[in-house]
Amino acid sequence: MLKHIPLLFALASLTASAADLPPDKGNEIPAGGKRPVVVTGKASLELPKCELPEGYSISVAAASPLVTHPIAGCLDDKGRLFLGDAVGVNWNKKQLEANPPNRVIMLEDTDKDGSFDKSTVFADKMTFPSGAQWLDGSLYVASPPSIWKLTDNDDDGVADKREEIITGFEYTGNAADVHGPFLHPNGRLYWCHGRKGYKVPDNDGNIVHEGKSSGIWSAKPDGSDVQWHSLLAGDNPVEVDFTPEGDVIGVQNLYYSQPRGDTIVHWLYGGVYERKDQMKVIEGLPRTLDTMPVMYNFGHVAVSGCCFWRGYEGHALASAATKPLQFLVTHFNTQRVVRMELTRDGSTYKAVENEFLKMHSPDIHITDVMEDADGSLLVIDTGGWFRIGCPSSLMAKPDVMGAVYRVSSSKKTKRPALQPLAAKPADLTSQIAKLKSKDAHARRHTLEWIAQNMPEDWARDEKADTVPEKLGEQVRAMMREDIDSVLEHSLILAAQRMSLLAVSLEDLKAEKSPAALRRMLMSFQPDDGGAANLAMGIAKTHLDSKEQSLARAALQQVTDHPDADEWVAPELMKWLDGSKTTERRIKALEGFCTLLIARPETQKLLTRMLQHGSADVRATALRVLADQKAGVAHETWIPSLEQMLAVHDLSKPLVIDAIKKLKSPRFDPALQAIAADTKQPQSLRLKALDAMSSRKITGETFVMVLDALTNAASSAAARIQAAAMLARAGLTKEERMELSKVFATVGPIEMKELLPMIRPTKEEDLLRAMVTELSKNPALVSQQESIYRTMLADKPTDLFEKVLLPAYLKGVEAIEA
Questions:
Q1: Cα radius of gyration (the chain)
Q2: Residue 651: which of 625, 630, 669, 672 has the closest Cα?
Q3: d(CA 521, CA 22)
Q4: What pLDDT score was predicted for residue 816?
Q5: Distance of CA 287 to the CA centre of its chain
Q6: Per the omega criterion (within 30 degrees of 0), is the bond before 600 cis?
Q7: Per-residue pLDDT for 258 more than 50?
């Protein structure tokens, strides 16, 4: 049962002391000659309407001027709250580095009444401090491009020593950067980093890793032993927390893109997580599975913070084997804190969502939640300042200050300490026994230990004793079991680290189970070129396996080999002998040619496919050409494409799609003839026009394409093609103004094609014309509201709030009615 809680806090007197600011740069800030920047007094803030379960209450723990725009932070062992606090400017990297504007503040509750009454600037001149961790008398803070160690040696509330212990993480100022750090029960610091790119050195200046992916990272508290835990193609992992057994659970924005999905993920050690439209950023990283597991998808909510609620309902945190774990997640866009109940599911967890806190104010943006020592929760609201990383914020509102709220329970609660992880026995005999356990979590933890601790000499020494050999036997035995994808990932990763001790060439040759063979192919780590060649030869024989997962693993093993083009393409050519080729072989040919289209033997293979007697084989070659991103063109393809273009059959649209990617003027006369032929279907004429390398859509051509879009007699395919062409064309302002008139009448698919024209539009009269006409379209509600918010994020605010949003809401009401 939810209740509404209106509260009003009285005004209190507030005082601030002036101070000299620390120097701009340098790791050491000289002691003396500085006075702390301190604000004292009780905060004043009227609480918005809130919804909470029965038995819970909410109060203001801190507000302006104790805080301005708090982001995220931590509590120390004295109950002091450290927060990254923004001044309310939306600056890019260059601006942030030129004059770092933000700070870390320390809040204290001196009278122990549950609300903070003293605020001290612990460290100023920070770029974008997003999180903190207190450890052994120092505060560790993520502020791009680095992780900082801040120490207050004289205990005056101001850090007089700043150490940049880890660096190399790129950022742009939109908050998809470094967040944290967070203390793991194994004593390491973990942090998150968005998809901005990184080049991370160790303490000696050697590059640990360089890439473009986002990820979860860890290091020892002194900054040594930096390593990635998980890497991914998604946008922005925000925060993580840890189960008693040390599992890393976190929240991730834009794990999925179309439609958007913000998620909870059990981040697996060594996991490389995919997103179909961003696969390039994880190219070359070691993969184990085609699709990595995701625990929960919220949809579009903009997850922003998380923590385990260890003292929930007065119960001490226990293993999820005995009762559910309570995991709190904050939603930036929807002003919510949800309570996720995590229970064991195979070797991972499943999550059930429960509403917990809803705050009814659009200017509240919840960024973090943490548990205080008494079991109450501190909920951080950054206020209305943040715009450049938030699609739901159309304008910055720095005058809307943030706050810290406290949620308390009527039940007596206390936060139990998260106990350090006990060291696992280093002997392999105990690990072998654990791999035979019926507990899937115990098996996974053992595999993770092996992946992290397997000595290289065990894997490479031909005289290895029987204990490592027995471990290899047990790992191979697991490969034949029916296991879930999480355990499968850990199994393959451990086998990769064990190398030939786990999977040998003899194993690949002898294995009959498709599932086991696929895992073995993913695990096999050849010790020399000869072994790699033999493994490719084995994999090649499974390219057309009836088990699709095995065929995909075989394709990866084959195409990863540097000589695959020279050695395998000629053998695949033999598949094309005769007039028929099996469906499985056609699929394998498509995968092989797609990955190696730039190689000479594969180009010969495509030439043969284009000339083949089977329409299915020819269509497969055309799809490879049409889907390529590199624009590879080969002279031997052109005669076949010209011949196909001259034939009137159902494959002609696909032929034109392939020709378009080749960007060759040689096809332009034939394409022009098709475009001018009024006997041809209108959609085909448009497609031919669009594929020409020299044609621009302007003048008479613009009139023709616009007519195809607006003429009621046009086919659906023609209208969609016309919309796509017009959206990509470099039209004049007058042509775009003419086109804006159709925004009110086009169908939902055509409208989706045209929408990308709005965001880059700079002329306000044209922009208003487009949005005004769009607001009249009955298909407006076919797109998510967030699409329009993002599209108009940097435009005059009334375009969304007064023109588009009322029409959108009216459309929603009509549907619901």
A1: 30
A2: 625
A3: 58
A4: 67
A5: 17
A6: no
A7: yes
Helices (H) and strands (E) counted in the chain, each on its own, are 26, 31
- Cβ contact 623:654 at 8 Å: yes
Assigned token pair, 396: 């910055």
Cβ atoms of 555 and 591 closer than 8 Å: yes
- In this prediction, residues 732-737 reach a mean pLDDT of 94
Q: Measure the CA–CA gap between 776 and 740, rounded to whole angstroms.
A: 12
Reduced to 3 states, what is the DSSP secondary structure of residue 46? strand
pLDDT at 694: 82
Q: List the strands of the sheet with 248-257, edge to edge.
A: 236-242, 248-257, 260-267, 296-299
Collect all residues with Cβ–Cβ distance below 8 Å to 725 and sequence separation of at least 6. Answer: 686, 689, 690, 697, 705
- Mean per-residue pLDDT, 186-196: 96
**How far apart, in Å, do the first and last CA atoms of the chain sit?**
27
Here the tokens at position 207 are 């590059």
In the prediction, which pLDDT does 44 show?
73
604-629: b (≥16 Cβ within 10 Å) or e: bbbbbbbbbeeeebbbbbbbbbbebe
Give the tens place of pLDDT for each residue, 741-773. Answer: 999 999 999 999 999 999 999 999 999 999 999
In whole angstroms, give the CA distance from residue 136 to residue 156. Answer: 17
**For residues 265 and 216, is the Cβ–Cβ distance under 8 A?**
no
What is the secondary structure of 536-567 as a DSSP string?
HHHHHTTTT-SSHHHHHHHHHHHHTSTTHHHH
The residues near 664 (Cβ < 8 Å, ≥ 6 apart) are 633, 638, 693
Residue 431's closest CA among 464, 496, 475?
A: 475
pLDDT at 678 over 90: no
Contact (CB, 8 A) for 237 and 214: yes
- 394 phi and psi angles, rounded to 5 deg: -80, -20
Q: What separation in angstroms does the CA of 313 have from each of 199, 380, 750? A: 44, 21, 52
